[in-house]
């Protein structure tokens, strides 16, 4: 028990006392202006509930099969330490986020309510992540203008990302769109829930929106939940296949997802709620203050061990 507590203390000190602004936050300027006027530190970009589609995938997928996933959403807020410091549209500045990647099925339980597990294939033909700035908000229902405006940041997915989805029921008679009226009356849907996580390497950052971003050290950690049916957003009519061309891939149509989404169409759509957090790469050089605190932490550990040995010797 003593050893466990001691180890926890040794590693907790540098983590708790390290400067969060240097370790897990980045500078963001939603105004896109030169100079510090609009600069703010953020440790979270929280998109509004959006859309994703699995091209070539539904609940009948088998191990080894590959799908292409496309995602799009409007930014909701940015924040630092839980305090909101920008809301999308504030000052006339709007941001959208689009992504695309390949996934391979690694396991499935099969049956009427399968749980399907995927591994992200970062070497696949589709791999992009982009953030755009615009003066209008993109439209979830029509799927338009998610790639309009000025490119603010781009990157690629890296590492061993993973995702899963579990079918819980639904089918004929369960409307795909249950948000603000049914905009897709010809499409029903299976129901279910899933999760996704992956790292994103930043390869380009517009200095007007992300001033001083260290491309060699900073990456983004993305997580999301996928749910069916839609209850917080409209299903999108189309997606961007490459993060550049707008609305070139059909979404909420019978030809794309069938009359029962996730079951009898060639593709499957999901309501998606994502989060993005900046991180500093593990091999990034710590600041002197962090190193000093680490030294103090190790010193405290050494003193604790010495006292423990002395107590044992006396007993």
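-> sequence recovered:
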């Amino acid at each position: 028990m003593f050893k466990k507590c001691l180890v926890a203390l040794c590693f907790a000190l540098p983590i708790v006392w390290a400067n969060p602004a240097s370790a897990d936050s980045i500078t963001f300027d939603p105004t896109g202006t030169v100079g510090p006027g609009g600069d703010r530190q953020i440790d979270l970009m929280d998109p509004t509930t959006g859309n994703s589609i699995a091209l070539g995938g539904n609940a009948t997928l088998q191990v080894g099969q590959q799908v292409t996933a496309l995602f799009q959403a409007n930014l909701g807020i940015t924040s630092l330490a839980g305090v909101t410091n920008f809301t999308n549209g504030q000052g006339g500045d709007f941001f959208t986020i689009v992504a695309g990647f390949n996934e391979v099925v690694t396991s499935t339980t099969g049956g009427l309510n399968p749980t399907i597990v995927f591994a992200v294939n970062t070497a696949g033909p589709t791999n992009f992540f982009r953030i755009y700035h615009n003066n209008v908000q993109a439209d979830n229902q029509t799927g338009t203008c998610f790639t309009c405006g000025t490119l603010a940041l781009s990157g690629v997915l890296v590492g061993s990302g993973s995702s899963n989805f579990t079918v819980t029921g639904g089918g004929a008679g369960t409307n795909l769109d249950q948000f603000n009226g049914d905009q897709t009356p010809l499409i029903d849907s299976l129901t279910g829930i899933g999760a996704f996580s992956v790292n994103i390497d930043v390869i380009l950052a517009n200095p007007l929106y992300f001033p001083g971003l260290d491309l060699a050290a900073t990456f983004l950690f993305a997580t999301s939940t996928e749910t069916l049916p839609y209850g917080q957003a409209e299903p999108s009519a189309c997606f961007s296949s490459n993060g550049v061309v707008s609305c070139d891939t059909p979404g909420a149509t019978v030809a794309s997802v069938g009359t029962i989404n996730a079951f009898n169409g060639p593709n499957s759509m999901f309501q998606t709620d994502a989060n993005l957090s900046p991180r500093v790469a593990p091999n990034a050089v710590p600041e002197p203050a962090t190193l000093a605190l680490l030294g103090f932490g190790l010193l405290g550990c050494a003193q604790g061990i010495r006292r423990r040995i002395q107590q044992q010797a006396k007993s």
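The radius of gyration is 23 Å.
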